[in-house]
Design goal:
With about 210 residues, the protein is an alpha+beta fold. It contains seven helices and six strands. It has helices at about 5-10, 35-60, 65-70, 80-95, 100-115, 125-135, 165-185; strands spanning about 30-35, 75-80, 145-150, 155-160, 190-195, 205-210. β3 and β4 form a beta hairpin.
C-alpha cells in the first residue's frame, strides 16, 4: 500500500480534469511510455479491489490496453493512449470510493519504483531523486523534456514539449510526487500544478514543498 493512501486516504488531492487532451501526437511512435507504469497500476488495483475487481477493470478495456494491464512488461514501450484509457477506466470504476484515485495511482507507481522508506527526512536524497527523475526522463517516456529546479521551500519540476498530454496524466503525477516525498521521510507534502499544457500553457509545472 502506498504511504499516500495509508496516511492521507481520501484526503489526498482531488483531480482537475478540465483542459484539452491529445492522446496521439504527430508521430505515433513518440507517444509512448514504459510498461512499468502499468505495473504500478496493476499492483494498486489488486490491493484495492482484489483479483476479481482487477479482472473486472480489465474487462472494460480495449484488447491492446487489456494486454498491457494484465501482464505489464516493465521494459516494453506502450502507447500513451492506452495508459490514459486504463487510468480513465480506473477513475470511473473507483471515484465513488476514492475521489482522489488518480493521485493514488501515481503514488502506487512511486511505491513500486522507489521501494525503500526513509525513517526521517533526507532532503539530500529526495533532491537527488527528483534530479535523477529529470535526468532519466527519456527512459520512461519517449516524449517531452523536463527540468528540475530547487526552490527555497522545496522543488519544481517543469515538463515541456509534450506532443501528447491529458489532465488525467497530470493528476497522477501529483500523487507520484507526494509519495516520493513521503518515502524520503518528508511530511506534509504539498504539490500543485501551477501551469499545464492541457490549459494552453507552455509547460506542466509542479511546485512541491515538504517538511
Amino acid at each position: 500500500m502506498s504511504l499516500l493512501l495509508e496516511r492521507k486516504g481520501t484526503n489526498a488531492p482531488l483531480p482537475r480534469l478540465d483542459g484539452k487532451e491529445v492522446l496521439i501526437g504527430p508521430d505515433p511512435n513518440v507517444s509512448k511510455v514504459k510498461g512499468v507504469m502499468f505495473g504500478g497500476r496493476k499492483q494498486f488495483l489488486i490491493e484495492a479491489l482484489g483479483d476479481q475487481g482487477f479482472y473486472g477493470v480489465l474487462a472494460r478495456l480495449s484488447p491492446r490496453t487489456m494486454t498491457y494491464a494484465r501482464t505489464p512488461l516493465a521494459s516494453s514501450w506502450c502507447e500513451f493512449e492506452s495508459l490514459i484509457e486504463l487510468d480513465r477506466t480506473i477513475y470511473e470504476t473507483m471515484k465513488a470510493k476514492y475521489p482522489n484515485v488518480l493521485a493514488l495511482i501515481g503514488a502506487a507507481s512511486a511505491e513500486l519504483g522507489i521501494g525503500r522508506v526513509y525513517k526521517s527526512l533526507d532532503s539530500a536524497e529526495l533532491v537527488k531523486f527528483l534530479e535523477n527523475n529529470a535526468l532519466f526522463h527519456s527512459q520512461y517516456q519517449k516524449f517531452g523534456n523536463v527540468r528540475f529546479e530547487r526552490t527555497p521551500n522545496g522543488a519544481r519540476m517543469i515538463y515541456t514539449d509534450y506532443p501528447c498530454y491529458s489532465p488525467i496524466f497530470c493528476a497522477s503525477a501529483i500523487g507520484y510526487f507526494m509519495e516520493s516525498i513521503f518515502r524520503h521521510g518528508g511530511t506534509e507534502p504539498a504539490v500543485a500544478e501551477t501551469k499545464c499544457q492541457t490549459l494552453g500553457d507552455a509547460s506542466c509545472t509542479f511546485e512541491m514543498t515538504w517538511r
